[in-house]
């Protein structure tokens, strides 16, 4: 047994730092001899641990899970900043953070003591550049969370101990460990991580983005379809009054769509397709974009514009179907004149309009699957396909069975249609999909060149 000289002490300190630089957690092992007759059970802890004999240092590694490094790379791509807050030695924290990609050479790592010595102004000026906090106190953790919140960021805080509870409570999203977490931490948390795995948080962010994206897609689909119906009726009331003077003169009034037809499209066709869109798989690059600004309107980032122009497009196409159907109706009934001819022509036009409006919206549902990618490049959505063919079958029933077509929806049965009628319906119905696909292609080419 030798006394600890300054040289020996420095040797142990250097070895401690060397272990810490290798991401090891270091324990010093020491002992003290007591006689059986000594009343050591009455001693205080400080007295028991005083004047120990140092045996050596032990370095232990608590390796990060293999999937954590990839998860941190994923968060960087998605614009999420990962901060390490730990009670470990600064050198240990720096080594682990560097290995995981949290800390780079131009970023800072500080201790809780250094944080205490910073003024609020100095801390806020360095906040964006600090990635690692070591040897921190519960008060330090709360201060860090508050600083990020005050800078306008949405803050998620993870923790497992009692000393993590205040900062978990202060965060926008408090996350407690489900396996190692204390009941206090779980009680303060908004969410409990059942597997204690950081990668699960990243997966949850991805799922959340997918759900929000599907909500926007459903809104996009429903509103653009409704705008299309409004535009169709508006064109009929305005331009239709000028174009179809003969029909109005004979019939007294002109209706492009009946109330039953509009109700059918909204309650049956649109509803099932919207459900299919709500079950859309996540887009492959959903984590390649920064988090959305919570203050932004849901119609931001071009959604309002897309709803407007695609709705107008559907409206114009549907009105065009009425115009073509009216001309076909006039030509198909040379034996009729006057009121009978105009009634037959308008009825034929309404049938084409009803079919084009319904089926074009079915095809349009595939447009909203992505605002960037071609629908043909995405993972198939079986629910959307089921909805498409189911709605198409229901739509065909409404025009194939004469009693339903004539008495319920006020249209002709399509059993008497010729090939030109079907070509018009198919061509105009698929037009929204073709137009939007071309627009997406042009947008991708423009972005690629810039």
Characterization of this structure:
- The chain has 450 residues and is mainly α.
- It has 3 domains: 6-60, no CATH class; 66-202, Rossmann fold; 205-449, Calcium-transporting ATPase, transmembrane domain, CATH 1.20.1110.10.
- Helix content is 60%, strand content 8%.
- It contains 18 helices and 8 strands.
- Helix 8 links the parallel strand 6 (156-159) and strand 7 (173-177).
- Helix 13 packs parallel to helix 15 (338-367) and helix 13 (259-278) packs antiparallel against helix 16 (382-400).
- The longest helix has 40 residues, at 198-237.
- The chain is rod-shaped and about 125 Å long.
- 32% of the residues are buried.
- The model has no long low-confidence stretch (mean pLDDT 90).
The CATH homologous superfamily name of the largest domain equals Calcium-transporting ATPase, transmembrane domain
Q: How can the largest sheet be summarized?
A: 3 strands, parallel
Number of strands: 8
Main structural class: mainly alpha
Order of strands, widest sheet = 3-5-4
User: What is CATH's topology name of the largest domain?
Assistant: Calcium-transporting ATPase, transmembrane domain
Share of residues in helices: 55-70%
| CATH top level assignment of the largest domain | Mainly Alpha
Q: Overall 3D geometry?
A: rod-shaped
User: How many DSSP H or I helices?
Assistant: 18
User: What is the CATH-assigned architecture of the largest domain?
Assistant: Up-down Bundle
| Uncertain stretches of 5 or more adjacent residues | none
The tally of structural domains comes to: 3
Radius of gyration: 35 Å
Q: Which whole number gives the mean pLDDT?
A: 90
The percentage of residues in β strands lies in 5-15%
- The run of helices and strands is HEHEHEHEHHEHEHEHEHHHHHHHHH
């Amino acid at each position: 047994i030798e006394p600890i000289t300054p040289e020996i002490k420095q040797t142990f300190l250097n070895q401690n730092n060397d272990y810490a630089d290798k991401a090891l957690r270091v324990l010093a092992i020491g002992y003290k001899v007591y006689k059986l007759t000594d009343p050591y059970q009455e001693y205080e802890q400080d007295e028991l641990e005083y004047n120990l004999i140092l045996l050596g240092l032990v370095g232990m590694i608590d390796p990060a899970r293999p999937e954590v490094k990839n998860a941190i790379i994923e968060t960087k791509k998605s614009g999420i900043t990962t901060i390490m807050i730990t009670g470990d030695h600064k050198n240990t924290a720096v080594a682990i953070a560097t290995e995981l990609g949290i800390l780079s050479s131009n970023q800072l790592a500080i201790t809780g003591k250094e944080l205490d010595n910073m003024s609020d102004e100095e801390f806020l000026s360095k906040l964006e550049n600090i990635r690692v906090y070591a040897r921190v106190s519960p008060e330090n953790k709360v201060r860090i969370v508050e600083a990020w919140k005050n800078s306008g960021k949405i803050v998620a805080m993870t923790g497992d101990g009692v000393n993590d509870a205040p900062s978990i409570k202060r965060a926008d999203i408090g996350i407690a460990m489900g396996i190692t977490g204390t009941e206090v931490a779980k009680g303060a948390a908004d969410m409990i991580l059942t597997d204690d795995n950081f990668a699960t948080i990243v997966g949850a962010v991805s799922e959340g983005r997918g759900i929000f994206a599907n909500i926007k897609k459903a809104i996009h689909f429903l509103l653009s379809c409704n705008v299309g119906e409004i535009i169709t009726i508006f064109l009929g009331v305005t331009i239709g009054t000028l174009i179809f003077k003969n029909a109005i003169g004979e019939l007294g009034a002109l209706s492009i769509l009946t109330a039953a037809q509009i109700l059918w499209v909204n309650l049956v066709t649109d509803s099932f397709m919207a459900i299919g869109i709500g079950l859309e798989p996540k887009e492959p690059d959903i984590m390649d974009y920064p988090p959305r600004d919570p203050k932004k309107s849901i119609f931001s980032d071009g959604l309002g514009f897309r709803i407007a122009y695609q709705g107008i497009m559907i409206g114009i196409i549907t009105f065009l179907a009425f115009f073509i159907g009216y001309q076909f109706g006039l030509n198909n009934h040379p034996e009729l004149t006057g009121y009978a001819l105009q009634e037959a022509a308008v009825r034929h036009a309404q049938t084409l309009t009803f079919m084009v409006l319904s089926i074009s919206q079915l095809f349009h549902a595939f447009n909203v699957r992505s605002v960037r990618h071609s629908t043909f490049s995405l993972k198939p959505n079986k629910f959307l396909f089921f909805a498409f063919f189911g709605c198409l079958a229901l739509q065909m029933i409404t025009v194939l069975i004469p009693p339903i077509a004539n008495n319920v929806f006020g249209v002709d049965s399509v059993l008497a249609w010729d090939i030109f009628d079907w070509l018009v319906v198919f061509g105009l119905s698929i037009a929204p999909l073709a137009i939007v696909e071309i627009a997406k292609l042009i947008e991708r080419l423009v972005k690629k060149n810039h």
